[in-house]
Design brief:
Shape of chain B: flat
CATH class of chain A: Mainly Alpha
Number of domains of chain A: 1
Radius of gyration of chain B: 23 Å
Strand content of chain B: under 5%
Order of helices and strands of chain A: HHEEHHHHHH
Structural class of chain A: mainly alpha
Distance between the termini of chain B: 41 Å
Helix content of chain A: over 70%
Low-confidence stretches of chain B: 1-7
Oligomer: heterodimer
Number of helices of chain B: 9
Low-confidence stretches of chain A: none
Radius of gyration of chain A: 16 Å
Number of helices of chain A: 8
Strand content of chain A: under 5%
Largest sheet of chain B: 2 strands, antiparallel
Largest interface: A-B, 81 and 86 residues
Mean pLDDT of chain B: 88
C-alpha cells in the first residue's frame, strides 16, 4: 500500500523525501555503534521477511508493515533499515520505485520511529497485557501516519490526486486495525519473554 | 539468480541504468512518448527471453493505492466529458492522465525486470560500495540480504508447524494474535542470533569493509552510455514534440 512507483509524484516531493531520508539515515548510522549495524540488520530481516506474510482480509489479503514495532525496536536506525529493505525489494522483486526510494522510506519508517521514541519507555515499564495495548495503539497510529504521509505526498504532487488521496487514507483503516492486533500481540509476547530488555535498544 | 556470470556480477551498470531510466520515465508527461517508452521497455524485456510466468507475475503486482488512483483520476480531473457512469462523468483529460501513469509505471517495472532479473544480487553490496555509497549503509544492506534468508526460513518453518496444528488463517482475532506471536517468537530468536553475529564479527577483528571492485569494463560503459542517450532522447521528445 505504501510503495509508490516512479512516475507519479512531482519532483519537489521526490527531492524532499530523498533529502529527509538521507539526513535521518546519515545521523542514525553515524551515531550508531559498530555493533549496532549487524544487530539492526538481523532484526530488520525479520520485519523484511514478515512483511511477506499474507493476512486474509475478506476476499483479499494484506501484508503487515510492522512500522510501529520496527520503531520500538530499532529506533532511528529503522529509517536506513527500511531504505535498505526497499533497495533489496527493487533488486530482488522489482517492486517499488527508484526515484521514490526516499519518499517511501520516510513514509514507511518515520511514523514508526516517532511512535517508538514516544512509547518505548512506557512499553518497557508495563506488564505484558498493558504493553500489548500500548504497542497496539502505537502500531495503529504509525500505520495511519504512513497512510497520511502517502496521501499527503500524492496531494502535494497534483491537485487532481486529492480525492484519491482521501480514499487511500480511508482504505488504510482496516490495515491499521490489523497492525494494532498483530503488533500488540508481538509486543505482549516480547514483554512476557524479555520484560523491558527489548525496547530501549539502541538507546 | 546464482547462475549469473561475467559482467552480470558487476551490478554498477545495472544500478546506474536503473537510476537514469527512472529519472527519464518519471519526467515524461506526454502519453505518446510514455507509450513509446513502454513499447521499448517491453521489447528489451522480451528480447532477454524471460520466463513468461515470472514476467506476468511481476506485471500483475499492483499496489492498492495505484488502483485507487487510476480508478479515481478519470472522474476527478476537470475537462471534456468522455463518458458517464451514473452520476459520474469521466473526462478525456483524466483518462489520459490515468493511462500516462499506467504506461510509466509499467515501463519502469519492465526496465527493472530486464536489469535485475538475472543479476547476481550477492554482488549488490560491493557494487554499491564501489559507487561511493557509505560503508555502514552497504554493510546494513548486505547483512539484511544475508539474514533475510534465515528469517524467511524460520518464518516458513513456524508457519508450517502452525498449519500442522490445523491453523487456518482467516479474518479473525485468532489469526492476528497468532501472527503477532509468530513475529514475536522470530524476533526473540533474532535477538539471540544478532548477539552471536556481533560476537563473531568482533572475533574476526571488527568492521569488514566491502571488497573493492575493478574499474567498469568498456562494454559496461557502452551500455550505460546507450541508456543515457535513450533516456535523454525520451525526455527531449517529451518536451519538444
Amino acid at each position: 500500500m505504501a510503495h509508490i512507483q516512479d512516475g507519479i509524484l512531482s519532483a519537489p516531493v521526490l527531492v524532499g523525501g530523498a533529502a529527509l531520508t538521507i539526513a535521518i539515515s546519515a545521523v542514525a548510522l553515524r551515531r550508531a555503534r559498530e555493533a549496532d549495524i549487524p544487530r539492526a540488520a538481523v532484526l530488520a530481516s525479520v520485519f523484511f521477511a514478515g512483511s511477506m506474510i499474507a493476512i486474509p482480509l475478506g476476499p483479499t489479503s494484506v501484508h503487515p508493515m510492522f512500522s510501529g514495532l520496527t520503531g520500538l525496536i530499532l529506533g532511528a536506525l529503522a529509517v536506513p533499515a527500511v531504505l535498505a529493505a526497499l533497495v533489496l525489494q527493487l533488486v530482488l522483486f522489482g517492486f517499488g520505485g527508484v526515484t521514490t526510494l526516499g519518499v517511501n522510506a520516510v513514509n514507511i519508517a518515520l511514523p514508526g520511529v516517532l511512535v517508538g521514541l514516544a512509547l518505548r519507555r512506557a512499553v518497557a515499564a508495563s506488564p505484558p497485557g498493558r504493553a500489548a495495548l500500548i504497542g497496539g495503539a502505537g502500531a495503529a497510529v504509525a500505520t495511519l501516519g504512513t497512510a497520511g504521509m502517502v496521501a499527503a505526498v500524492l496531494a502535494l504532487s497534483a491537485s487532481d490526486f486529492v480525492p484519491a488521496a482521501r480514499v487511500v487514507l480511508l482504505a488504510n483503516l482496516p490495515l491499521a486495525a490489523i497492525e494494532a492486533l498483530v503488533c500488540g500481540a508481538a509486543v505482549g509476547y516480547l514483554q512476557r519473554a524479555r520484560a523491558g530488555r527489548w525496547t530501549s535498544w539502541p538507546a | 539468480m546464482t547462475g549469473a556470470q561475467g559482467s552480470d556480477r558487476d551490478l554498477r551498470p545495472h544500478l546506474i541504468a536503473a537510476v537514469l531510466a527512472a529519472l527519464a520515465i518519471a519526467a515524461l508527461h506526454r502519453l505518446p512518448v510514455a507509450l513509446a517508452a513502454l513499447t521499448l521497455a517491453a521489447g528489451f524485456a522480451l528480447a532477454a527471453r524471460p520466463d513468461p510466468r515470472r514476467l506476468l507475475h511481476r506485471l500483475a503486482h499492483v499496489e492498492g493505492f495505484l488502483l485507487i488512483l487510476l480508478v479515481f483520476l478519470p472522474f476527478t480531473t476537470p475537462g471534456e466529458a468522455l463518458f458517464r457512469l451514473g452520476p459520474l462523468t469521466a473526462t478525456t483529460e483524466g483518462a489520459t492522465r490515468a493511462l500516462l501513469i499506467l504506461c510509466k509505471v509499467n515501463a519502469m517495472a519492465l526496465t527493472l525486470f530486464t536489469l535485475f532479473d538475472r543479476a547476481a544480487v550477492e554482488w549488490l553490496g560491493r557494487s554499491l560500495a564501489a559507487l561511493g555509497v557509505p560503508a555502514r549503509f552497504v554493510r546494513l544492506t548486505e547483512l539484511l540480504l544475508r539474514h533475510s534468508h534465515t528469517a524467511r526460513d524460520g518464518l516458513a518453518r513456524q508457519s508450517q508447524a502452525m498449519r500442522a496444528r490445523a491453523f487456518r488463517p482467516a479474518t479473525n482475532l485468532h489469526t492476528m494474535i497468532s501472527t503477532g506471536h509468530l513475529i514475536g517468537g522470530t524476533l526473540l530468536r533474532a535477538f539471540d542470533r544478532a548477539e552471536r553475529v556481533e560476537e563473531a564479527m568482533r572475533l574476526r577483528g571488527g568492521s569488514l569493509a566491502a571488497a573493492p571492485m575493478p574499474p567498469m569494463t568498456r562494454p559496461a560503459w557502452v551500455r550505460i552510455t546507450s541508456v543515457a542517450v535513450l533516456a535523454a532522447g525520451f525526455v527531449l521528445a517529451d518536451r519538444v514534440a
